[in-house]
Amino acid sequence: MRKALLILDIQNDYMSDQARLPIAKQQMESTIKSINNLIGKAKEQEIPIVYIRNEFERTQISNLFRKFTAIKGTKGAEFDERLVIVKGKYFSKNKADAFSNPDLATFLSQQNINELIVTGVFVEGCVSATVYGALTRSFKVIVVNDAVGGVSDKSKAAALMKLAKKEVLICTSHQILEGEEIENGTFTAFN
Predict the structure, then answer these.
(1) Which of 15, 117, 133, 180 could connect to 80 by a Cys-Cys bridge, CB 3.0–4.6 Å?
(2) How many CB atoms lie within 10 A of CB 105?
(3) pLDDT in tens, 126-140
């Protein structure tokens, strides 16, 4: 299986105390740290790294419910400065599902990628929508539970449980980085 690491929406408007729509404060540092560790390992193993971010138009009404976050061209739409940016591919989106940008599916197909390791925010929204988009396109999907953030610990746990019921493998960054054995066999995401 050819894998890619997807990093969703690690942007200023979601990842700080001053964010317009922050994830749970206690999840911020650990989420970024886990993602950065995965980026380092993916780079070392030459696994494609795909950065995805929201970029909404100022007049996009659907962004009203997101407190007008990640307006294209603003500081809030930029990647959080703590996120490690390495050579990788970048895609913007203006809907929850990253596959709403057809260039993402085209790129993954061109790279013969059939397994996605998904990280980012919000697990209840964009992460889940992207996972469902990937599943409908027959990708195998892994969600890294310590590399996703949510509105609260409770809503994050509920979203992860819901994803696990959809044939999505939920694991920790440590399991991926170390290739640890998990419930249904040996896990070798980066090996």
Answers:
(1) 15
(2) 16
(3) 999 999 999 999 999
Report d(CA 100, CA 75) in Å as an integer: 23
**Do residues 111 and 6 lie in contact, with contact meaning Cβ atoms separated by under 8 Å?**
no
The two three-digit tokens of residue 4, written as one number: 């890619």
Name the 3-class secondary structure at 147: strand
Cis peptide preceding 122, ω within 30 of 0: yes
pLDDT in tens, 27-49: 999 999 999 999 999 999 999 99
CA gap 53, 55 in Å, rounded: 6
What pTM, to 2 d.p., does this model score? 0.90
Amino acid making up residue 85:
I
Q: Is 190 left (phi over 0), alpha (psi -120 to 50) or beta?
A: alpha
Tokens of 75: 């500081």
* CA pair distance 8, 91, nearest whole angstrom: 10
Strands 185-186 and 181-182: antiparallel
